[in-house]
Amino acid sequence: MHSVVCIKQVPDSAQIRVHPVTNTIMRQGVPAIINPYDLFALEQALRLKDRFGGTVTVVTMGPPQAEVALRKALSFGADEAILVSDRAFAGADTLATSCALASTIRQIRKNMPVDIVFTGKQTIDGDTAQVGPGIARRLDLQLLTYVSRILEVDHGARQIRVERRAEGGVQVLRTALPCLITMLEGTNEMRFGTMADMFRAARAELKVWDRLAAGIEDPSLVGLKGSPTVVGKVFAPKPRALRAEMIETATQEPKDLAVTLLAKLFTQHPRIERELARRAV
Amino acid sequence: MIEPAKKPARRKVELDPRFASYKGVWVFIENERGAVHPVSWELLGEGRKLADVLGVELAGVVMGPPGEATRGFCAEAFHHGADFCYLVQDEVLRDYRNEPYTKGLTDLVNACQPEILLLGATTLGRDLAGSVATTLATGLTADCTELAIDPESRCLAATRPTFGGSLLCTIMTQRHRPQMATVRPRVMAMPDRDSSRSGRIVEHPLGMVESSIVTKVLEYLPDNRQDQPQLVYADIIVAGGRGLKKPENFHRVWDLARVLGAEVGASRPVVQAGWVELDRQVGQSGKTVRPKLYIAAGISGAVQHRVGMQDSDVIIAINNDPNAPIFDFAHYGIVGNAMQILPALTEAFRAHLAQARKVG
Ligand SMILES: Cc1cc2nc3c(=O)[nH]c(=O)nc-3n(C[C@H](O)[C@H](O)[C@H](O)COP(=O)(O)OP(=O)(O)OC[C@H]3O[C@@H](n4cnc5c(N)ncnc54)[C@H](O)[C@@H]3O)c2cc1C
Ligand SMILES: Nc1ncnc2c1ncn2[C@@H]1O[C@H](COP(=O)(O)O)[C@@H](O)[C@H]1O
Predict the structure, then answer these.
(1) Same fold for the domain at B18-212 and the one at B231-359?
(2) Which residues from chain A sit within 8 angstroms of residue B163, using beta carbons?
(3) Is the ipTM of this complex over 0.85?
(4) Is the Cβ atom of A6 under 6 angstroms away from ligand 2?
(5) CA contacts within 13 A on the Cβ side of A214
(6) Does A234 touch chain B (CB under 8 A)?
(7) Would you give the distance in Å from CA B180 to the centre of its chain?
(8) 3-state DSSP call for residue A33?
(9) I need a surface site. Which of A80, B88, B107, B180 has the fewest CB within 10 A?
C-alpha cells in the first residue's frame, strides 16, 4: 500500500493580526504549522499502513522553510518526504498548485505505484478545497471528497469502500484504486510519533525537487504565470452607513438596558416581535 | 490560496481571441434526491443582476435522472430568473458522482461557451467546480461574498475574504473563460419567485453508460435532521464568542436561545476550544447565515465572522469594548458585560413574549 499525502505549511491563523493603522497583515512572528485539516489525511494514511504495511510519502509545495512541516510529518511516522520548491512556483493559485503537485506525484509513481493520494478537506489560509479535486482530475484518479470513514480496502481486488459527507446525508461509495481522497475533519486524531520516528525525522535527508525534478518542462504552467486568477484590490470592509445605535440608560443596569433595547427593537421592527411571539416555547 | 500579487491587476488585459465567443451567465442548479438546493435560486438572483449588467442571457444548468421532477426544476429556474435552461437527463445522473457530472458540465461548457459559471459552495458544488475548472484549465474563485462586473474589463470581479486579518480581496480571471466562482448558501439574497416567468429548455445528451463509470453509490444514509443544528436557514440566532471567557459561561447563550426559539451559533475560537460543535461556527470557514435576528455576545466582529452574518436583517451586539469592530456593522449595540446582559435580555424577552402571546 503506497499513500501520498499532500500537506501544506500555513501560518497559524489564530495568531495573525492586522495592523490597526495600515490594515496590512502582520505576519512576523506568526508560527507556521501543518494545515490542521491535512493531519486527518496523514493519520488516515498512517492507519492504512498499520493495517496493510507499505509506505507513506508526504509532499509539500512551498518555500525551503516548509521542510519543517515535512520533518514533523516524518516524526508522526511518514516514511518519505519530498519538498517541491522552486522560484517558478511562487504566486500559484489552485490551478497552478494542482499542476505542480500532480506532476510531482507522476514522478513519484514512476518509482513506486501509488494506491491512494490523500489531501485535507481544505487549507486554513486558502479555504478553497480545490487543490484535491484538481490533482485527481489531472492524474485521472477517481475522486472521493469529504470522506468521513474508510470502510474497507481490498488491496487484491484494487477496491475501496468509503463514507462520504454529502449535503443532506452520507453516501456510501465504492470505487477502484488508485483514487484521491480528501479527508473530512474530526475523523481521527493524530498519533504521537515514536521516539525512533522523532530521531529519524530530525536526521532525515529530505528530497528537494525543483521544477524540472518535479517533471514540469513548461514554466508557464506553474506559479503566477500558470494561474488564471489574478488578485486585484485588497481592502477593508466598509462600515455600514450608520454605526450601531448604542443603547444607553441612566443607570446602565443590565435590566434597564435590556428593557430599553426590547422597546426600540420592537417599535422599529414589529415583524420581529410577531415572529418571536409566533414561536411556541 | 493566493498571495496578493505585488502589482495590482493590470487594467487593460487582452482576452484571448479564442474566448471572444463565450457569452452568457450560467448557474448550476444543484439537485439531489429530488430537491434543488436553495443556494441555486439565490445564485439565479445574483446571476440575473450580472447578466443584466452585461446585457446577456441567464441560463440554468439542470442535470439529473430522466423524469418530470428533473424537468420541473427548469420551470422553477425560470420562476427564479433564468431565461432558459440546459437540461441533461440520464439515468447515470441519479446520484451525484464526480465523474459523470464533471463530464456533463464540461462538455456543455465546451459546446455552448458561457462567460461566467456559478455554483453553490456546497460539498457537491465544490467537488464539481474544482474538477470542471481543472479540466477546462480556467480560473475558479471559491466562497465569494460578493460578485460584480468590472466596468472596464467586463470581467467578473469576485470578492472573498483574504487570509489572515480583516481584509477582503477582489479576484478576476482575465484571460480565461469561463470565469468560475462558488458562493455559499445564504450569502446572496433569495430572489422573489415569479411564477408567470417561463423560458425555453435546451436538451443535451450526456453520452455515458453506467458500465464505464468506476465509482458506484452503494447506499445513501440521510441525516437525522433533528439531531443537527439547522443554522444556515434559521430565522433567529444567538451567537457567543471568546468574550464569554469559559465554557461554563456559554449556557447564558443557550438560555436566551431557548426563550427565543433560536439556534445557537459561535465564533471560531469557541468552536476550536470545543465549547460547541463545529456545525455551529458562523463565518468564512463555518456557515453563512441570514436570519431575521442575530444576537452576538462577546464576539469582536473580525471579517471572517462578519462575512458569515452581515446580511442578517437585524444584528444586536453585546461587547464590553466600545471600539469593537462589531459595532461598525451591528444595528443595535450594548456596551457591557455579556455575563450580565445575556441573563437580563433572557428575562426581558421572556416577560415580554409571555405578555405578547397572551394578548395575541
Ligand atoms: C482563514 C481564517 C478563517 C477564519 N474563519 C472564521 C470563521 O469562520 N468564523 C469566525 O468566527 N472566525 C473565523 N476566523 C477567526 C477570526 O479572524 C477571529 O479571530 C474570530 O472571529 C474572533 O472570535 P471572537 O470574536 O469570539 O474572539 P475575540 O476576537 O477574542 O473577541 C472577543 C470579544 O469579546 C469581547 N469581550 C470580552 N469580555 C467580554 C465580556 N465580559 N462581555 C462582553 N464582551 C466581552 C472583547 O471585547 C472582544 O471584542 C478565521 C480566521 C482565519 C485566519
Ligand atoms: N502547496 C501545497 N502543497 C501540498 N499540498 C497542498 C498545497 N496546497 C494545497 N494542498 C493540499 O490541498 C488541500 C486543499 O487545499 P486548498 O484547495 O488550498 O483548500 C490541502 O488540504 C492540502 O492537502
Answers:
(1) yes
(2) 11, 13, 16, 25, 125-127
(3) yes
(4) yes
(5) 30
(6) yes
(7) 14
(8) strand
(9) B107
CA gap B140, A95 in Å, rounded:
8
Q: Separation of B22 CA from ligand 1 center, angstroms?
A: 43
Read off the pLDDT of residues B77-96 as tens digits, 9 standing for 90 and up: 999 999 999 999 999 999 99
pLDDT (tens digit per residue) in B294-311: 999 999 998 889 989 999
Reported residue count of chain A is 281
For domain B231-359, the CATH class is alpha beta
Name chain B contacts of A124, Cβ cutoff 8 Å. 285
Residue nearest to atom 21 of ligand 2 (CA): A120
pTM here is 0.89
Cβ–ligand 2 contact at A147 (below 6 Å):
no
Asked if B77 contacts B85 with a C-beta cutoff of 8 angstroms, the reply is: yes
Q: What is the pLDDT of residue B315?
A: 97
Architecture of the domain whose range is B18-212: 3-Layer(aba) Sandwich (3.40)
Instruction: Enter the CATH code of domain A2-221.
Output: 3.40.50.620
Domain positions in chain A: 2-221, 244-281
- The structural domains of chain B, with segments of one domain joined by +, span 18-212, 231-359
Strands A116-120 and A179-183: parallel
Pocket test for ligand 2, best of A40, A123, A146 (most atoms within 8 A of CB): A123
Residue with the smallest CA separation from ligand 1 atom 23 is: B267
Residue whose C-alpha cell is 512541516: A69
Cβ of residue A94 lying under 6 Å from some atom of ligand 2: yes
* Mutual angle of helices A254-268 and A270-278, in 10-degree steps: 100
